[in-house]
Description:
By secondary structure, the protein is of the alpha+beta class. It has helices spanning about 20-30, 70-85, 95-100, 120-130, 170-185, 225-245, 255-265, 295-310, 315-320, 325-330, 330-335; strands at about 10-15, 35-40, 45-50, 55-60, 65-70, 85-90, 105-115, 135-140, 145-150, 155-160, 185-190, 280, 285-290. It has a six-stranded antiparallel sheet with strand order 1-6-2-3-4-5. Strands 7-11-8-9-10 form a five-stranded antiparallel sheet, with helices on one face. Strand 3 and strand 4 form a beta hairpin. The protein is globular.
Amino acid sequence: MFLIPREKPVVENLNSYYVDIARLIEHYQGEVGAGVVHFQSPVSEAVLFFDEQSIVNGFLDHRRQHFHGTDAVERVVEGAGRNNFTISVYRILPERLYFWANLPKSKVVYADLTSEFTNLEGLIRKLEAEKFTGYIDVEVKNAQGGLLFIYKGEVIGGSSADGAGNLDRSEQYRQDLIQRSKKHGGNFNVSRVMLDEPEAAKISPPERVRDSSKADSGSREVKIGSARVMEMLGGLLYALESLVRSNRKIKGDFETLLNRKFVENVDKYEFLDPFAAEFRYSEGKAQFSGSADYGKLVAAVAECVTEIAESHGLLVRLQKNLEVWRREFADEIAAFDIRL
């Protein structure tokens, strides 16, 4: 079972025969940031969840066969023209993307609770107090049941149990489901949804990588050389340096500011220790002589850049100034999952 927040679509009723799926997703990554593409045909149904940088998960039901992750993405993208899907795109709040993308992989934590011993209203209050993330599947005897979705302790909507129709965010839907369960009796199943990033099912690049020197030529890894990684990090730091230098409220030079931030994070990323000088930055150039995994290095530098920008109120300006950098290093940014 997969469900999506099927409200007002950004676009609907496209025919997959005339659509390049990869380019469609690329367009709406820029247009809406995070969302889901829904595919429907007489014999198949599929969803591809995306954020600004990648497809984060996908699910496909085809003639009683079920596929997810990379396998689902490849089958949908490669076979869309042959399957004659009707396509719709829906926007999703970025912070809730992984909720919907992980929904089909949820785990039952309370099974077959009955209205004889469990009050639905009380159960909802309990899950709200626990800041629970997941959903309640409400089965009502001799009447229509439904689903209630809970995100970090907040009921964010409901839907009919068969997944048809729109997401109903009204308080009325919730109260109606509570009253029907009281009147007719029923069973409740509670499932938890994890908000961890799914194993990414990216079209391009397909997987995160370390260094091209460690990549198997027969694998699907994106081959990114160390020089390219250093160019990317140098460009990122230079963008921040330019903002810092132009801000008269910030005292001290950029190098001191950066090294201070590295020291704050040295317990987590020891290779950032300025005294060891494994990673060095100066005048737009980055160098690294350590043995740490490039993925960890990139994550560390991006984290430090974000913290410096946020602490000085520069994050929004930095994000705007990075547009050219994002285009130049699009593959690397996606491969290392840099979120700036």
